[in-house]
Design a protein that fits this description.
Elements: E1 2-8, H1 10-22, E2 28-34, E3 39-48, H2 53-63, E4 66-71, E5 88-93, E6 95-101
Antiparallel strand pairs: 1-3, 1-6, 2-3, 4-5
Length: about 110
């Protein structure tokens, strides 16, 4: 068994989770944030048999696309009127996936 920890954009979650459900693959959702933009995102924890890892990775590739966002940088050491610059394009999206071995899974009721 493997544990896939996938950090994805909020916009990609619904379609990905639906595709996972269509393949009878469950996922635990954790709200997260971080990175350059300090934007919220989603971390999915997915446990599958070794043979299903590529299926999950294919679903991630299908649903988690890169996109361009425009941000307005704020520079702290300038006068207030000079702080805001023109929007700059930043690539976001895709997914970061960590694949780890699972020694044991326990369900406690």
């Amino acid at each position: 068994m493997k544990l896939l920890i996938a950090v994805i954009q909020n916009e990609d979650e619904d379609a990905l989770v639906q595709d996972l459900e269509d393949h009878n693959i469950g996922a635990t959702r954790i709200g997260s944030s971080g990175g350059f933009l300090r934007a919220s995102n989603v971390t999915l924890m997915i446990v599958v048999d070794d043979g299903q890892v590529e299926v999950v990775l294919d679903l991630l590739r299908k649903n988690c696309k890169r996109r361009t966002r425009h941000i307005h940088p704020l520079l702290p050491n300038l006068e207030a009127r000079e702080r805001f610059l023109s929007a700059i394009p930043v690539e976001v999206g895709g997914a970061r996936v960590f694949v780890l071995p699972v020694e044991r899974v326990e369900k406690i009721d």
